[in-house]
């Protein structure tokens, strides 16, 4: 049992942090905010303490059993296997004793992948910010929101929440503290180094790059140490293996693979889905150039020699080395400076590990993903190189056959259904839009209806409340204003907007829903997921030489990774969006074209020019990456709509608005009890079915997070 206020149990030992987390989440869903905040904080603190303890035990035991080593080296040692076992046992005993002094037996068990995911995505802080908000502790809520947002930078609702906290009394700028900052120090140095470089401040760039390298090595070390003291997930096939040696090899290989994976973990910025390639060599590259510019030629030679350990034959590095040594003429000591000891240890250790791992891959069916690009070819077994080559060729052939092949839309929607509203025509279809499941319809609103809706936007903006203009989340060159149906209805209730005009906003969305439902032959009912009226206004004087977009290329329901053409359907993306639509209201502005691209986010496949009453619709998934070009003059207004086939994820705000004015939503309200029971609190324990939890996860990280 955990005692509140500290992260230790009654016995003084660390309890399992996942249990504390589940308690917190359960309290959250029963709206016991006090307990929710208490237990989630406790779980965060306990996890941190556990990581620290493990690191301490790793260090304390790093030489345990070393007294055996001389015996291992004795001539004609026929009992070397027993000595090795002795050495392993002494280390095991040391770590076991060390952990046992600080952690309860349950706390030492591995946690589930779901819990790792929760902490990896910082979802704990999402629960916390809401709990603190409800408890009227805005400073703590602000810190939690900011910490979550750091790792989920495209989470627009959290961005909105942060803006709201900023405006709250008692919340000063220093409240926005990243509680996980300690883990990101290398990124701070990295950013500082780039900034220094861009202003040619070489001494500062050198310092920052050095710090960045040191911190990267330190974080890598920390990560590798955790591999040793945490239980390793063994390859599944190991159950079928009989021999002790095979099992021992599988375990050792898993440990090495875990250590190697640290390269990826450390080079992954919070909030990114892929690591920065060649992170360490790239830092060395920047560092030697900065050292050269600063005039520290000796330092530059040392760094360049360190870099050459990664890429010994790189022609550019070799010619730079020649330039440096020539400039150092006469100074033989500087000319012959070797690489830094730390880097050369790093590289030789990595090479030895990779050799063993590739041996395992080739001969023991071990699966290993090499995180490095610099791995020399001769370390990779010939057979593997061959199969890689074949795979690459296959992929190239497929790409040549036409990218279209890859662009199969498995959403279950199928464009080409009827358009059931009089006066609405199909202007562009899949063929003219050069893609899959896209459409442009015209005549959805009349000119006077467009004017009325735009007028709503004007009034809402002028009265301020509910329609706060702020810089666009996507570009600093535009102002971004948004109005939801509920906010419009509330303004109408207060007499600030005309009721029938507000109802037109609602009605416009309904028309779009009917059209999209029919045209895409939706196999089930279609619910609103989220709707807002959005105006993007060019900020005068901020337009010269603009290269950015009004809305960067994205996919509406997954996180697009253009380099790999993958799209990750996971938080923070709004994964429950199935169909997207934008109903345009005007054309008296410059720029602001909607465009579709290929998965590379670069190749433009179609363009749509907004105009009054024009509705563009498309499936929200990876076949439809899209963006909006810069609005360089005037104001572009549109009603953006997303739909879902999952009733559970429908827009409750819209229903609240409908209830206010007695508007019948197309679907009757679900019984409260029923919808609540779908979010039944998680059972405690480590072996929960993941379904239950993934719903919870969606609930806090879906479109409903806005305060
Ligand atoms: O306004 C538009 O044309 C598109 C906006 C969009 O893609 C979005 O909000 O996700
Ligand atoms: Fe979009």
Automatic annotation (TrEMBL):
GO terms for molecular function: iron ion binding; L-ascorbic acid binding; procollagen-proline 3-dioxygenase activity. Residues 659-707 are annotated as: Disordered. One of its GO terms (cellular component) is endoplasmic reticulum. Coiled coil: none annotated. It is an enzyme of class 1 (oxidoreductase). Residues 693-707 have a biased composition (Basic and acidic residues). One of its GO terms (biological process) is collagen metabolic process. Its cofactor is L-ascorbate; Fe cation. Its EC number is 1.14.11.7. Residues 521-645 form the Fe2OG dioxygenase domain. Keywords: Dioxygenase, Endoplasmic reticulum, Glycoprotein, Iron, Metal-binding, Oxidoreductase, Repeat, Signal, TPR repeat, Vitamin C. Belongs to the leprecan family. This is procollagen-proline 3-dioxygenase. It comes from Silurus meridionalis (Southern catfish).
């Amino acid at each position: 049992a955990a005692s509140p206020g500290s992260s230790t149990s009654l016995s003084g030992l660390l309890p399992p942090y996942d249990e504390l987390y589940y308690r917190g989440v359960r309290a959250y869903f029963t709206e016991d905010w006090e307990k929710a905040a208490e237990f989630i904080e406790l779980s965060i603190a306990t996890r941190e303490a556990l990581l620290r303890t493990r690191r301490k035990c790793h260090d304390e035991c790093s030489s345990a059993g070393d007294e055996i080593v001389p015996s291992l080296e004795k001539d004609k040692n026929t009992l070397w296997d027993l000595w090795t076992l002795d050495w392993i046992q002494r280390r095991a005993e040391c770590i076991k004793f060390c952990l046992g002094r600080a952690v309860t037996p349950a706390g030492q068990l591995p946690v589930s992948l779901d819990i790792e995911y929760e902490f990896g995505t910082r979802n704990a802080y999402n629960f916390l910010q809401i709990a603190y908000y409800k408890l009227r502790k805005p400073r703590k809520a602000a810190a939690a929101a900011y910490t979550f947002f750091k790792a989920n930078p495209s989470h627009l609702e959290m961005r909105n929440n942060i803006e709201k906290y900023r405006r709250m009394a008692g919340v000063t700028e220093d409240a926005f503290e990243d509680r996980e900052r300690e883990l990101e120090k290398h990124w701070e140095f990295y950013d500082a180094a780039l900034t220094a470089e861009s202003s040619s401040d070489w001494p500062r760039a050198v310092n920052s790059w050095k710090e960045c390298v040191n911190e990267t090595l330190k974080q890598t070390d920390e990560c590798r140490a955790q591999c040793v003291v945490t239980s390793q997930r063994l390859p599944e096939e190991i159950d079928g293996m009989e021999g002790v040696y095979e099992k021992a090899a599988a375990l050792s290989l898993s440990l090495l693979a875990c250590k190697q994976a640290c390269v990826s973990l450390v080079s992954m910025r919070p909030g990114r889905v892929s690591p920065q390639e060649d992170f360490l060599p790239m830092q060395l590259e920047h560092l030697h150039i900065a050292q050269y510019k600063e005039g520290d030629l000796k330092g530059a030679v040392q760094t360049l020699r360190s870099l050459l350990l990664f890429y010994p034959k790189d022609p550019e590095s070799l010619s730079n080395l020649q330039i440096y040594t020539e400039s150092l003429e006469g100074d033989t000591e500087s000319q012959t400076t070797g690489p830094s000891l730390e880097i050369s240890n790093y590289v030789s250790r990595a090479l030895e590990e990779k050799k063993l791992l590739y041996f395992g891959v080739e001969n023991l069916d071990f699966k290993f993903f090499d995180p490095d690009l610099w791995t020399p070819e001769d370390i990779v077994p010939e057979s593997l190189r061959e199969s890689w080559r074949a795979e690459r060729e296959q992929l190239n052939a497929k790409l040549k056959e036409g990218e279209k092949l890859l662009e199969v839309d498995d959403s279950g929607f199928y464009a080409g259904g009827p358009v059931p509203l009089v006066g609405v025509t199909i202007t562009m279809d899949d063929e003219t839009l050069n893609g899959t499941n896209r459409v442009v319809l015209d005549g959805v609103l009349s000119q006077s209806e467009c004017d009325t809706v735009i007028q709503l936007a004007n009034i809402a903006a002028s009265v301020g409340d509910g329609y706060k203009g702020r810089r666009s989340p996507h570009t600093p060159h535009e102002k971004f204003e948004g109005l939801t149906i509920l906010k419009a209805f509330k303004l109408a209730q207060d007499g600030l907007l005309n009721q029938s005009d507000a109802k037109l906003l609602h009605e416009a969305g309904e028309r779009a829903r009917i059209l999209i439902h029919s045209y895409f032959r939706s196999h089930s009912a279609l619910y609103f997921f989220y709707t807002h009226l959005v105006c993007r206004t060019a900020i005068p004087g901020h337009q010269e030489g603009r290269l950015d977009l009004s809305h960067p290329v994205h996919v509406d329901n997954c996180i697009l990774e253009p380099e790999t053409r993958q799209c990750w359907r996971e938080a923070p993306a709004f994964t429950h969006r199935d169909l997207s639509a934008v109903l345009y209201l005007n054309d008296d502005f410059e720029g602001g074209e909607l465009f579709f691209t290929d998965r590379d986010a670069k190749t433009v496949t179609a363009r749509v020019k907004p105009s009054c009453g024009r509705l563009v619709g498309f499936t929200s998934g990876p076949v439809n990456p899209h963006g909006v070009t810069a609005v360089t003059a005037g104001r572009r207004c549109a009603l953006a709509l997303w739909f879902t086939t999952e009733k559970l994820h429908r827009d409750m705000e819209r229903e609240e608005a409908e209830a206010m004015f007695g508007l019948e939503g197309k679907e009757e309200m679900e019984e409260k009890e029923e919808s609540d029971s779908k979010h039944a609190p998680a059972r405690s324990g480590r072996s929960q079915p993941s379904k239950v939890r993934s719903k919870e996860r969606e609930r806090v990280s879906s479109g409903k997070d806005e305060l």
